[in-house]
Amino acid sequence: MRRGRGPASASSTASSSSALFGGESATSSPALDTRIPDLLKELHQLIQQTQDERARSEHNLTNIQKTHERIQYEQKGKSKAVSPYFKSKLRGLYSTAKADAEVEADLLRKCLDKIAQIKSIRNERRIAAKSAGIFMEQEPPRKTMRRGVLMTLLQQSAMTLPLWIGKPGESPPPLCGAVQAGSDYVAKPGDKVAARVKGPDGDEQWILAEVVSFNTGTNKYEVDDIDSEEGKERHTLSRRRVIPLPQWKANPETDPEALFHKDTLVLALYPQTTCFYRALIHAPPTRPQDDYSVLFEDTSYADGYSPPLTVAQRYVVSCKESKKR
């Protein structure tokens, strides 16, 4: 029940792996080739500006620390009240520190935007190459990928999912953590989704898949099974059988409302497989780098649920079905 589907050939190379999770697998147009280096240069400049801004603001932070130390020294054995002079000085220092932090935060957001643009272009190149059936010599078709490589890629994809960092008072967007997309949302080619498909024995299961296209006329998706041996197992599915995966991690420290709460019924990717199963949230993440702790439905246990297992935010989505208990 819990085994991964369709283990791939063991006589393989890991180089084909980048074609699945954002790497480049073919040559592309000169315009795109030019744009990525330009964006990388802009990203480098923004990172340098961020570093310079951080170094510049360090002097003010040092002054804040020294001012507090001076206050503590002068208050020894005296009244605990802070003098008007120090109150005014600290107010000015903290005002400057707040402005410096806002400048740095703005630069970091611009860095994240550049990274998102680069990833989007690389993904467009990969999808275009995949549609044309083009592969680089060092990146053969997916049939040569080992299962261990695929599992590592799934883990890396979860780890590198960007963390949503909003401005003060800004709500997390759709597809951030547990925040669902609107009913009119259409996943883009290359997006990873949970897809409900029929298996060889006729049973239905939720699998990890990649969007190939969406037909507005039929209102149906074409998706590729991420774990098909030849990389060619394609399914045509209605929108209700496709659930987009989160595109940002939610920060438990700033946006706990964007996470699934304890005892929420979800679909979660079972560890070391490419299948989603029903599960209950045992504990949500408490830090940005943490995973969910979930209880998978499993009849081999007395209470019908497995012991707690960890699953990354990337692979936990809402389940519309009712609970067993």
From TrEMBL:
PROSITE patterns reported for this sequence: SGF29_C (PS51518)
Keywords: Coiled coil, Nucleus, Transcription, Transcription regulation
Low complexity composition-biased segments: 8-19
Ranges of biased composition (kind: Basic and acidic residues): 66-77
Top-rank lineage group of the source organism: Eukaryota
Subcellular location: Nucleus
Ranges where the record places region Disordered: 1-33, 50-78
Gene3D superfamilies hit by this protein: 2.30.30.140
Positions in coiled-coil regions: none
GO biological process: regulation of cell division
Major localization listed first in the record, in broad terms: nucleus
Positions of the SGF29 C-terminal domain: 183-325
GO cellular component: ATAC complex; nucleus; SAGA complex
Entry protein name: SAGA-associated factor 29
